[in-house]
Specification:
Layout: H1 14-33, H2 47-74, H3 99-114, H4 119-146, H5 150-156
Helix pairs in contact: 1-3, 1-4, 2-3, 3-4
């Protein structure tokens, strides 16, 4: 049996922690440091920004639902603790190798937009860096070792969107 590296296990509910962190930073800045530190997105009216956030939230939830449905339809587990059975390459995985992580980033951004603050968008940066440098490289090594077609898939499909 070949030696396949184990997949890294992301912190459970990391996207919820990032959203809470972004909102917590915004609340702390607003309450403790004053309105100037709340980093409100300057718009003549807040509702277009908030509407954009709601649309981003809806599309992010739809993206995650579609990606999870593709995993279930292919019979491969979502859990990092179980071996992947199939390399899912259809649906949203045709245009991004990480649509579930992309949807998490969209959800974090949408909360910042709906709260009309840059804090939610700033909370996105450490989470994106964590995914890019800590989680995804280990997952890709695992998939490369597990599936012979992974390199060809990775060449034609971007990690994120570009």
């Amino acid at each position: 049996m070949e030696d396949i590296p184990s997949q890294p296990e992301p912190v459970a509910q990391l996207d919820l922690l990032c959203i809470a962190g972004g909102m917590g930073c915004w609340y702390f800045a607003k309450e403790q440091l004053g309105e100037a530190w709340a980093l409100t997105i300057r718009a003549k009216r807040a509702w277009p920004v908030q509407l954009l956030g709601a649309a981003l939230m809806a599309s992010s939830v739809s993206l995650r639902t579609c990606a999870v449905d593709r995993f279930r339809a292919q019979g491969t587990p979502l859990s990092h603790r179980q071996a992947s059975q199939v390399l899912v390459m259809d649906g949203p995985f045709e245009w991004s190798r990480n649509p579930m992580y992309l949807s998490m980033l969209g959800n974090i951004s949408s909360v910042g937009l709906m709260a009309n603050t840059w804090w939610g968008l700033l909370a996105l940066l450490p989470f994106a860096a964590y995914l890019q440098f800590c989680i995804i490289p280990g997952e890709e090594a695992y998939l490369r070792a597990r599936f012979k077609g992974y390199d060809a898939y990775a060449q034609r499909t971007p990690r994120w969107l570009l």
